[in-house]
Amino acid sequence: MSDLESWAAAHLDETCVKAIVGVRGANKTGALEVVRNLIRARGVDDARLVSIDFEDVRFRHLKTADDVLAFLHRLPGCAMARYLFLDEIGRIGAHAELLHRLHELPAWNVWVASSTATAIGAGDEAFRPYPWVCAFRLWPDPAQPRSTCVLERIWCEIFMRDVACCVNHPDIRAKEALAEYISDRLGERTTLREVAAELRVCGRVLAANSIRAYRKALELCYLVEASEVFDVFEKRVIPKCGVRLFYTDLELRAWRFGAAPTFEAERVAVNELYLKLRRTYEKVYTPYGKDADFVTVEPDGALRYWSVNSNKTLDIYVFRAVSGGGGGVFSRKKKKTPRQTAPMCC
Prior knowledge:
Layout lengths: L2 H9 L5 E5 L6 H14 L7 E5 L11 H9 L8 E6 L7 H9 L4 E7 L18 E5 L10 H16 L7 H14 L4 E2 L1 H7 L1 E2 L2 E2 L2 H13 L3 E8 L4 E2 L5 E5 L2 H8 L6 H15 L7 E3 L5 E4 L5 E4 L9 H8 L23
Parallel strand pairs: 1-4, 1-5, 2-3, 3-4, 9-12
Antiparallel strand pairs: 6-11, 7-8, 9-10, 9-11, 13-14
Helix pairs in contact: 1-2, 3-4, 6-8, 7-8
């Protein structure tokens, strides 16, 4: 029996939170599976095993202790205590609060994995576990060589996800949080002030100027692009009324964030049309004063309008109405009624 198996077996029935910690690449996720197998070997049914990977796209909406507890409360009831496995617990805001509250619930036998020491301790004593936490340090296996691609991925994850969790400055996490915000609102017209009013990073409010800088950073690395609002009568860009943001790689977006909570098919269809047009036009605008998804300017100055075929996505009219794209309604309060004018097809 390995050291991990011996440790897990010795603490299997204890009420404390069991934490497996170590650097990324040490296979903590695999260690949690080892524990699950030990529990299964004791005859525990899989229905009593609940697993949440906070870096899995399926659970990305669980951001606070209350979110996680509400999710667990919605699970079907069970007469016996269940085993809860939380992978990368450090991704949750107030993770110490979550673990402490779970520790006080006899219905759960809690196991966690974390790449940050702050998940098990606080302040200068981060490496000293809380009294209600029992920790096992996992080390990378030197007998398992890894490719340069895997090593690069691990290194980037350490800095983007783990280092960022251990500092107060929200710059790194804010950029990824903004990328997630854009993904969930793909194709919606928003202003910097609106984003600043809605987006929170580690519980912090960001200024509009910070949002501007973070969005610019995402644009500079070719991850997202902005479609400005264009007045088709005056033939000019209208400043200060927001932009619509689109991903340049929809497959990458789907891998990282999954589907938007609403209108996913419509958002993707509009984004696909935008990308198709960008292969020909340097600028693809959102029209004000015309029912269309986009407008482009020909070399002779003529305007050409483009829209997703309504047969492709039946809810495209509703999406245009609520997203602020393709029509010219500036006030979000007026976006309740779907437009009735049939769109043009590209």
